Structures are given as structure tokens and as C-alpha cells.
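Hi V.,

You were right to ask for the full record rather than a summary. Here it is.
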Amino acid sequence: MNAKTLAVLLKGSLLTKNGENDINSGFACDLMSYALANAREGCAWITVHTHMNVAAVAALNRIACIVWPKGAETDAETAKKAEEQGIAVIKTELSAYQAAGIMYLKGIK
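Predicted structure:
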């Protein structure tokens, strides 16, 4: 599944031009060090953090997509940095729990 398709499934908005990024797994975490150690390459990472460190961790781990769930304040600079690194960013009004459930049911494990 690609990021553009995931954005539709999550009733969200793709904030970057990287909609063709392939997603091979999911990951949900708000602790940067844990994400750095455990997020897998090609995953869609659900986090409420929107600061620049999210883009840095995603780039280091070659994460395909960052998902900002309900309550996450959009940070245009972070989205721009992620886009420059080839990372898709999705904003959804679903909760992290709902987004993870949809992803799992659609085969993103």
C-alpha cells in the first residue's frame, strides 16, 4: 500500500508530495529514542509529535510515512523537512488507536 492510499483509508490529508511511498508495516510510538531503536524501514509511524526531531528519526530509519493523528498540531516546517527527506506525512482526525486499527485491518502489520 502506498501513502496516498493510506491517507484515503484514514480519512486524512497527505501533507507532502511523497504519496507513492510504499508502506510495509506500521509503528505507533511517541518516545523518540524508542522509535529510533525500533521503527522499521518502510513503516508508517503514528505519532503525536510534530517537531523537527520526528523528521530526523524518520529519515535515519528510512520510514516511509509519518501519521499525525487527532490532537497533533500540524507543523508545516516539519512536514517540509520530511518531504525533502522523501518521507510522506499524513494528518488525520482519527485517534492514534483508530488509525492503527484501520491500518492493521487493511494488512499493514
